């Protein structure tokens, strides 16, 4: 089903990479460098867009690991596939609320600049729980605070005007419901980072 959000991101795909400056990518790299990522693991990148995280992640997992990007915008997914034609990178046109993967498939998951746009955030967390192996971590990452994300989307208007990161309490409740633990939230100007551990 192609909804207005998908159309919005399809239309942005051609110039999406231009939205990220060299400084943005350096900041993003510093955040990713803080995260313990072992070689040979399988990582899921939810709402991967054009693959902004791919190069940072694929180098960390090496040739025996993999990075699988998922995006509901076919144009974003196609561009990600063209941008990163590497054997350890896969791109799937799919929605985060209905992932086409078996249970216990991945060792880690990321949602970079994507979580506010998921049509059913609770279901996206549930699906991520399902496809992650026990003990795997899920990271939600933005290069803005939750307040800044809301302000940006409000200014953009249209279909993304009300796309927000939920409150810290709502996020904790959301992750508790899906049996994630050790929920950590860093929310400050220039950074939002949530991490949680999949319990079972």
Question: What does the model show?
Answer:
The protein has about 200 residues and is an alpha/beta fold. The chain has one domain: Vaccinia Virus protein VP39 (Rossmann fold, 3-Layer(aba) Sandwich). It contains seven helices and seven strands; from the N terminus they run ααβαβαββαβααββ. The protein has a seven-stranded mixed beta sheet, sandwiched between helices. It starts with a helix and ends with a strand. The mean pLDDT is about 95.
Short description:
With 200 residues, the chain is α/β, with parallel strands linked by helices. The protein has helices at 4-12, 22-34, 54-61, 74-83, 121-131, 146-156, 168-177; strands at 42-46, 66-71, 89-93, 106-112, 132-142, 180-188, 191-198.
CATH superfamily: Vaccinia Virus protein VP39
CATH fold-type name: Rossmann fold
Q: How can the largest sheet be summarized?
A: 7 strands, mixed
Spatial arrangement of strands, main beta sheet: 3-2-1-4-5-7-6
Order of helices and strands: HHEHEHEEHEHHEE
């Amino acid at each position: 089903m192609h909804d207005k959000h998908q159309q919005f991101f399809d239309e942005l795909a051609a110039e999406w990479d231009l939205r990220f400056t060299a400084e943005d990518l350096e900041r993003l790299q510093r955040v990713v460098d803080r995260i313990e990522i072992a070689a040979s693991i399988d990582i899921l990148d939810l709402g991967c867009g054009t693959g902004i995280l791919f190069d940072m992640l694929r180098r960390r997992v090496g040739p025996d690991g993999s990075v699988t990007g998922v995006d509901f915008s076919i144009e974003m997914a196609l561009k990600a596939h063209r941008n990163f034609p590497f054997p350890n990178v896969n791109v799937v046109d799919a929605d985060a609320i209905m992932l086409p993967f078996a249970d216990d498939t991945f060792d880690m998951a990321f949602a970079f600049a994507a979580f506010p746009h998921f049509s059913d955030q609770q279901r996206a967390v549930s699906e991520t729980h399902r496809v992650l192996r026990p003990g795997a971590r899920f990271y939600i990452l933005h290069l803005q605070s939750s307040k800044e994300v809301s302000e940006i989307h409000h200014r953009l208007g249209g279909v993304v005007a009300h796309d927000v990161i939920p409150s810290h309490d709502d996020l904790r409740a959301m992750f508790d419901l899906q049996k994630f633990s050790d929920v950590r939230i860093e929310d400050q100007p220039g950074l939002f980072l949530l991490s949680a551990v999949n319990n079972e």
